[in-house]
C-alpha cells in the first residue's frame, strides 16, 4: 500500500485513555457467553483478500480489583478489526454492558490509513439496552498527539466513541447465515490532522486532514453466541495540493467483512 497520511505521522506505542466505570444495575437478560474455553472463528474478507481469525477466552485476569476475561487469538496476529481489537485484551460484563480494557490495536492486514494503538480502561463496546444511535460511553475518548514530519509540527486530534445500533429479532448476514435476537453496535474514530508553515514572519496554519470519520465499524452480536458479523469501513480524503506537498495519496478507502464460521459458546 502507498504511504498513508496517518501511518507516516502516527507512531504511537500507547495513548492512555480512561473511560468512566458504570456499574449501575441494568437488565442483563441478553446473554453474552463469557466462559473459559469459548471460541469463535471468523472468515475475513478485505476486498477480496481472504484470511481467517480464531478468537478465544483464555481465562481470568484481575485489573483494579475487577475480574475480566482475557481474549487471545490462535495466531500471533489477527487480520479482522474485531479480533484484532479483542486480541490480548480483557472484557468484563456489567449489567447489560461489556467493557473493554487493554490496547485497541488495528490489524496490519486491514491496510488502514492509521497506525492506532490506544490504551483503554472500561471502554463500553456493547450495551444490549442501548437505543439506536445512543452513545455507549458518557463522552467520547479524545486526545491530541504532537509529532514532527519533514520539519513540520504535526497535530493529530482524535475522538473514539461507540453507539447502540438496531435491535433485530432475526438477522441474516450477507452470506445467508441466520441468527436470532441480534443487537448491533457502531464504533467510530474521528480524526483531524493539522500543521503550520512559517514563511518569513508569518505562520500559516494548514489542515492536512479535515475532521472526518476515519473508521466506522458495525458489529452484530447474537444472544447466546457473541459477535456473528462485522462490517468495517475506512475512508479519508485530503486536499490534492496538500497531498502533493506531503507526497501522500489524495484519498483512501477499504471495506472489510468478518463472518462467524465455527464457534463454541457455553
Condensed summary:
7% of the residues lie in helices and 60% in strands. It is mainly beta and 266 residues long.
Question: Could you give the topology of this structure?
Answer:
Blueprint: H1 5-9, E1 15-18, E2 39-46, E3 49-63, E4 66-73, H2 81-86, E5 90-94, E6 97-105, E7 117-127, E8 141-149, E9 152-172, E10 178-199, E11 202-222, E12 226-237, H3 240-246, E13 251-264
Parallel strand pairs: 1-7
Antiparallel strand pairs: 2-3, 2-13, 3-4, 4-5, 5-6, 6-7, 8-9, 9-10, 10-11, 11-12, 12-13
Explain this structure:
This protein has 266 residues and is mostly beta strands. It contains three helices and 13 strands; from the N terminus they run αββββαββββββββαβ. The chain has helices at residues 5-9, 81-86, 240-246; strands spanning 15-18, 39-46, 49-63, 66-73, 90-94, 97-105, 117-127, 141-149, 152-172, 178-199, 202-222, 226-237, 251-264. It has a 13-stranded mixed β-sheet with strand order 1-7-6-5-4-3-2-13-12-11-10-9-8. A hairpin with a 2-residue loop joins strand 8 and strand 9 (152-172). The termini are far apart. The model is unreliable at 1-25 (pLDDT under 50).
Counting DSSP H or I runs of 4 or more residues, the number of helices is 3
Strand element count:
13
Flag low-confidence runs: 1-25
Overall pLDDT metric = 84
Describe the strand arrangement of the main beta sheet, using strand numbers. 1-7-6-5-4-3-2-13-12-11-10-9-8
Beta-sheet strand percentage? Answer: over 45%
Amino acid at each position: 500500500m502507498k504511504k498513508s497520511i496517518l501511518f507516516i505521522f502516527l507512531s504511537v506505542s500507547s495513548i492512555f485513555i480512561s473511560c468512566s466505570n458504570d456499574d449501575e444495575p441494568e437488565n442483563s437478560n441478553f446473554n453474552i457467553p463469557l466462559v473459559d474455553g469459548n471460541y469463535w472463528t471468523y472468515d475475513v474478507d478485505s476486498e477480496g483478500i481472504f484470511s481467517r481469525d480464531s478468537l478465544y477466552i483464555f481465562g481470568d485476569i484481575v485489573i483494579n480489583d475487577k475480574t475480566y476475561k482475557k481474549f487471545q487469538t490462535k495466531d500471533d496476529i489477527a487480520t479482522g478489526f474485531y479480533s484484532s481489537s479483542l486480541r490480548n485484551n480483557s472484557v468484563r460484563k456489567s449489567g447489560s454492558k461489556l467493557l473493554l480494557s487493554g490496547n485497541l490495536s488495528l490489524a496490519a492486514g486491514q491496510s488502514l490509513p492509521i497506525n492506532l494503538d490506544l490504551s483503554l480502561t472500561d471502554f463500553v463496546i456493547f450495551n444490549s439496552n442501548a437505543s439506536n444511535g445512543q452513545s455507549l460511553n458518557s463522552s467520547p475518548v479524545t486526545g491530541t498527539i504532537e509529532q514532527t514530519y519533514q520539519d513540520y509540527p504535526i497535530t493529530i486530534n482524535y475522538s473514539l466513541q461507540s453507539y447502540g445500533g438496531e435491535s433485530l429479532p432475526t438477522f441474516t448476514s450477507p452470506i445467508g447465515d441466520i441468527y436470532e435476537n441480534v443487537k448491533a453496535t457502531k464504533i467510530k474514530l474521528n480524526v483531524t490532522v493539522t500543521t503550520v508553515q512559517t514563511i518569513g514572519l508569518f505562520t500559516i496554519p494548514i489542515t492536512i486532514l479535515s475532521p472526518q470519520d476515519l473508521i466506522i465499524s458495525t458489529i452484530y452480536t447474537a444472544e447466546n453466541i457473541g459477535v456473528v458479523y462485522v462490517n468495517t469501513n475506512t475512508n479519508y480524503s485530503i486536499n490534492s495540493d496538500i497531498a502533493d506537498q506531503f507526497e501522500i495519496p489524495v484519498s483512501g478507502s477499504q471495506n472489510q467483512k468478518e463472518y462467524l464460521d465455527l464457534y463454541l459458546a457455553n
